[in-house]
């Protein structure tokens, strides 16, 4: 029983020592735009905002109806954007919208070496437009993910390494014709992080275990 208590206490301390609150967990953290953001180890994701909204969609994208999900597994961080209601990104007739999602990665951002951009499930009639364009780091390395392909097809290297990374995602959805339709479920950025980030989290866990043992001895 005492051993179980120590394990649970170590897990709790690991959570406190490894992450700044709020946490982008190994499970997922979902928040609407304008929230503080969250951290993974020494990586902080914040300054989420919507800009340059255009089009005639019944419910245009805004900070209140676009949500962000951030998930972490060893070696990979995923930032996924989606509407709070799926129907907001499901268009019919001569309807379209476009908007920018901007956010920032700071502190340990130099640990991010590459990224990939994806469109989630897309659908609709032809012709239609479902397009995602990305610009990472404020440089000139833009990359597009066209409809139906789902992915950029190759990793984009972030070079040189930056302590602050600014991310710009431009999302465009358009339906053409009276009977036309177009839809996108989500879009996401995937950031590849090397083992040092994972090791940093592991090191924090060891620190937590050490603190538990010290507490028990005292």
Secondary-structure topology with pairs:
Blueprint: H1 2-18, E1 28-32, E2 38-40, E3 43-55, E4 66-73, E5 76-83, E6 90-92, E7 95-107, E8 114-119, E9 122-124, E10 128-136, E11 142-146, E12 156-157, E13 165-175, E14 181-184, E15 187-192, H2 195-217
Antiparallel strand pairs: 1-4, 2-3, 3-7, 4-5, 5-15, 6-14, 7-13, 8-12, 8-15, 9-14, 10-11, 10-13
Outline of the structure:
The protein is an alpha+beta fold. It has helices at 2-18, 195-217; strands at residues 28-32, 38-40, 43-55, 66-73, 76-83, 90-92, 95-107, 114-119, 122-124, 128-136, 142-146, 156-157, 165-175, 181-184, 187-192. It has one domain (26-196).
Describe this structure in words.
By secondary structure, this protein is of the alpha+beta class. The protein has one domain. The protein has helices at 2-18, 195-217, and strands at residues 28-32, 38-40, 43-55, 66-73, 76-83, 90-92, 95-107, 114-119, 122-124, 128-136, 142-146, 156-157, 165-175, 181-184, 187-192. The strands form three sheets. Strands 1-4-5-15-8-12 form a six-stranded antiparallel beta sheet, with no helix packed on it. A six-stranded antiparallel beta sheet has the order 2-3-7-13-10-11, with no helix packed on it. It has a three-stranded antiparallel beta sheet with strand order 6-14-9, with no helix packed on it. A hairpin with a 2-residue loop joins strand 4 and strand 5. Helix 1 crosses helix 2 (195-217). The radius of gyration is 20 Å and the shape is elongated.
- List the helices and strands in order: HEEEEEEEEEEEEEEEH
Radius of gyration (Å)? 20 Å
Count up the domains: 1
Number of strands: 15
Oligomerization category of the chains in this entry: single chain
Q: Please, what is the average pLDDT? A: 74
User: In DSSP terms, counting alpha (H) and pi (I) runs of 4 or more, how many helices?
Assistant: 2
Percentage of residues in strands: over 45%
Overall SS class: alpha+beta
- Principal-axes geometry comes out as elongated
């Amino acid at each position: 029983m005492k051993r179980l208590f120590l394990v649970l206490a170590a897990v709790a301390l690991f959570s406190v020592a490894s992450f700044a609150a709020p946490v982008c967990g190994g499970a997922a953290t979902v928040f609407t735009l304008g929230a503080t953001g969250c951290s993974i180890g020494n990586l902080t994701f914040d300054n989420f905002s919507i800009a340059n909204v255009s089009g005639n969609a019944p419910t245009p994208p805004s900070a209140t109806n676009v949500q962000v999900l951030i998930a972490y597994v060893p070696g990979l961080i995923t930032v996924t954007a989606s509407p709070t209601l799926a129907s907001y990104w499901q268009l019919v007739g001569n309807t379209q919208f476009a908007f920018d999602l901007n956010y920032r990665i700071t502190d340990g951002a130099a640990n991010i070496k590459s990224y990939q951009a994806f469109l989630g499930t897309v659908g609709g009639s032809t012709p239609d437009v479902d397009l995602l364009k990305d610009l990472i780091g404020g440089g000139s390395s833009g990359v597009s993910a066209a409809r139906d392909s789902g992915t950029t097809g190759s990793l984009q290297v972030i070079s040189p390494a930056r302590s602050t990374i600014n991310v710009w995602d431009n999302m465009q959805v358009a339906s053409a014709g009276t009977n036309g339709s177009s839809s996108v479920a989500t879009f996401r950025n995937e950031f590849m992080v090397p083992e040092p980030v994972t090791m940093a989290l592991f090191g924090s866990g060891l620190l937590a275990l050490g603190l538990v043992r010290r507490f028990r001895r005292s």
